[in-house]
Design a protein that fits this description.
Length: 70
């Protein structure tokens, strides 16, 4: 038992005296990328399949992105 206490005491002394071998990492906050983009949001709704098909056909006919569809 005394051998264990000696080893534990030696380990504690060694940890106090030695400097850490791994470098300490620096934490930096994430910077916001401010640009001219408008924020987007997501809207989940249930719509009938026929309405969805009509919307897809309208988008194909107008050849404009879905987000700009009136």
């Amino acid at each position: 038992m005394t051998d264990y206490k000696n080893k534990l005491g030696n380990l504690a002394d060694r940890l106090k005296n030695e400097e850490p071998k791994t470098p300490i990492q620096e934490v930096n906050p994430v910077k916001n990328n401010i640009s001219g983009k408008e924020e987007e949001g997501q809207l989940n709704v249930w719509i009938p399949k026929t309405l969805l098909k009509k919307k897809k056909i309208t988008v194909l006919n107008k050849s404009c992105p879905k987000r700009k569809l009136p």
